[in-house]
User: Which sequence fits this backbone?
């Protein structure tokens, strides 16, 4: 199975200029602060600079603090923090949507549709034989991909590449990829039908998505999560982002779980929980884990704990990343796994992994 991080989306947006690419977490901070400024919204009561990290502010700690301020913060500042957190959630969704618009204005990078076809057509993974050797070819029918990214590039690539279900049948929808029961936004009034189709690719968006909407952090666990249907063509805008459809989401907010260490409020949602549960059981079944642009943030203890507890020692982890320091970091955080470095510290690691069919190239 596969895990995608911010580095994946950045690599997938390489066809546009550096400033238009989907941002890494620390790059997001400047963009969202600028967005707050241009929309006349107040700066958060505790600025990002108060949360220093390696090489810049620790955005995860910052968002985590604002979402759930500690007890020493005054009641008034607590409310201001939570208001700032809502503003920042909207800002993040807007910034990513804007960057994504630029990315989809040009053709996708060559490897993205190929990778999604491989995921959906299988066999995309490896399995361990009796001798403990990894063999290509998935042992089951489906490919599970965990993503912590909010953008919709994988869904768009799927819509581009998915085979038609058949003559006279509805075309495939991106909703096919989600095991969680999301309600189509059209159910709130747009006059279109829900598409049905079948995908072997299961996409588990564990931090939500810019095109998912819910009632906010205070919503109860049974709150309906709506999703915006991804259009058939890569560059087609989502109807809901057009002004004339604004009222359909006027009382909803984008369902983005901030990349923070403490996410208990958003994690109450039953739809999100079902996805996490699915990810945990897929991890328990997987022989190999392919990390694409996923750097295992040390503050994200929820993810680290899930992999540590569900993905047994002795199993294989492929680090597909241009950063050569990452495999050592993964080995330290997840001891006892067989960490493959054969696709790390190289340029274009994902295309190379694709060209080699994901085979181990370790010396
Ligand atoms: Zn290897």
Assistant:
């Amino acid at each position: 199975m596969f895990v995608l991080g911010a580095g994946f989306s950045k690599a997938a947006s390489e066809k546009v200029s550096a400033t238009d690419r989907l941002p890494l977490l620390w790059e997001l901070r400047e963009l969202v602060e600028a967005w707050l400024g241009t929309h006349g919204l107040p700066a958060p009561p505790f600025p990002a600079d108060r949360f220093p990290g390696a090489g810049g502010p620790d955005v995860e700690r910052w968002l985590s603090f604002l979402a759930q301020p500690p007890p020493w913060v005054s009641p008034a500042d607590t409310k201001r923090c939570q208001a700032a957190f809502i503003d920042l959630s909207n800002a993040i969704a807007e910034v990513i949507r804007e960057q994504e618009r630029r990315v989809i204005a040009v053709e996708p990078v060559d490897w993205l549709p190929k990778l999604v076809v491989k995921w959906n057509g299988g066999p995309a993974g490896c399995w361990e034989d009796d001798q403990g050797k990894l063999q290509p070819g998935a042992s089951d029918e489906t490919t599970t991909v965990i993503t912590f990214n909010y953008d919709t590039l994988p869904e768009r690539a799927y819509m581009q590449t998915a085979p038609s279900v058949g003559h006279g049948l509805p075309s495939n929808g991106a909703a096919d990829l989600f095991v969680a029961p999301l309600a189509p936004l059209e159910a709130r009034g747009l006059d279109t039908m829900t598409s049905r189709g079948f995908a072997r690719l299961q996409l588990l968006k564990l931090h939500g998505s810019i095109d998912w909407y819910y009632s906010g952090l205070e919503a109860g666990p049974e709150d309906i999560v709506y999703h915006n249907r991804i259009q058939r063509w890569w560059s087609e805008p989502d109807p809901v982002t057009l002004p004339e459809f604004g009222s359909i989401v006027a009382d909803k907010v984008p369902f983005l779980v901030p990349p923070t260490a403490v996410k208990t409020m958003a994690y109450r949602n039953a739809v999100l929980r079902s996805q996490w549960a699915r990810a945990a059981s897929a991890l328990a079944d997987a022989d190999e884990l392919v990390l694409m642009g996923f750097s295992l943030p040390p503050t994200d203890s929820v993810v680290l704990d899930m992999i540590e507890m569900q993905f047994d020692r002795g199993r294989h982890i492929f680090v597909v990343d241009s950063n050569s320091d990452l495999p050592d970091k993964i080995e330290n955080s997840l001891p006892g796994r067989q960490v493959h470095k054969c696709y790390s510290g190289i340029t274009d690691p994902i295309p190379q992994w694709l060209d080699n069919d994901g085979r181990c190239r370790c010396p």
The pocket of zinc ion is lined by residues 340, 342, 360-362 (CB under 6 Å).
